[in-house]
Amino acid sequence: MPSPPEQLLQKPSNLKAYLLLTLTTTCWAMNAILGRLAVDQVSPLALVSLRWLLVVILLLIFAQSHLRRDWAILKNHLLYILVMGAFGFTGFNMLFYLSAHTTTAINIGILQGAIPVFVLMLAFLIFKERVTKLQSIGVAVTIFGVVIIASGGSVERLANLEVNEGDALMLLACALYAGYTVSLRYRPEVSALSFLSMMAVAALLTSIPFTLLEAYMGHFQVPTPTGWAVVIMVALFPSIIAQIAFMTGVRIIGPGRAGVFVNLVPIFASIFAVTFLDEPFELYHGAALALVLFGIWLSERGKPV
Questions:
Q1: Which of 22, 33, 53, 212 is deepest in the core (most CB within 10 A)?
Q2: pLDDT tens by residue, 27-77
Q3: Strand (E) or helix (H) holding 168
Q4: Among positive and negative, which fits the CA dihedral 146, 152, 154, 155?
């Protein structure tokens, strides 16, 4: 009988999905740090529009052959693409960067751990997707790891925890992205690059009215040099690399199982906060990391046959 490592190697598609989803969560954790760095350097809605403008320019340069090949299929799904771009890209990122003005990078990363809960709930409510007891336990364990970070390892702090405006916005953003994740099962049969290119166009178009509203309200801020650096970073890592990796991972193992990996975001966000924001790494971070990884393992072991 093959050992566990040998069994894993006998499933190259699953291993590929695990690596891609880990890369995705690394980029998303980086986005939490960049969101905080953007404060006072570029206004949040300007950041959303400029992010997707740069992504559209880059993708239209490198994805032309893919788009020409897939256009016959894509043109029949334009409404779906527009809605997905509006909720999964524009809506999520708009709330994400707004929340960064009233909460911390660590909190942003932590609250993204709520996405698997929304994903499993939506998959069950809308598609009647079965959730096993072991999967539920795995999600609970990962959420417990998230709670440890949220409480800073302090029971007293946890008991007095309050949800501020930024945290509430981030939870709403997570709900939007969970809906996007579940709806990826309906994406057209085209290359990930083609689909992402069209989604980026949809995100750009749907973000413009919000940016105009921001300017009308007097909150628009032209990026500083640091702001432009943030725009470039969020365009490359969370927008292009992470999205292609995520869509591919979801296609391989499904939205329910892929969503559990989002629990790695608070761990990676903590690591980046230590590295780039000089925040101390405490013992409870290590405990949370062990719980999150164990929870993902339980969810994978408990997946429906």
A1: 33
A2: 989 999 999 999 999 999 999 999 999 999 999 888 899 999 999 999 999
A3: helix 165-183
A4: negative
DSSP string across 218-280 = T------HHHHHHHHHHIIIIIIIHHHHHHHHHHHH-HHHHHHGGGHHHHHHHHHHHHHH-PP
Residue 66 CA: distances (Å) to CA of 69, 146, 197, 218, 250 = 5, 39, 10, 40, 20
Angstrom CA distances, 118 to 60, 91, 99, 244, stand at 33, 16, 19, 21
User: Residue 10: inside a domain, yes or no?
Assistant: no
Q: Give me the residues of the chain with pLDDT under 70, please.
A: 1-12, 149-163, 256, 305
**For residue 7, is it within any domain?**
no
pTM greater than the 0.85 cutoff: no
Q: Which domain range does residue 76 map to? A: 19-301
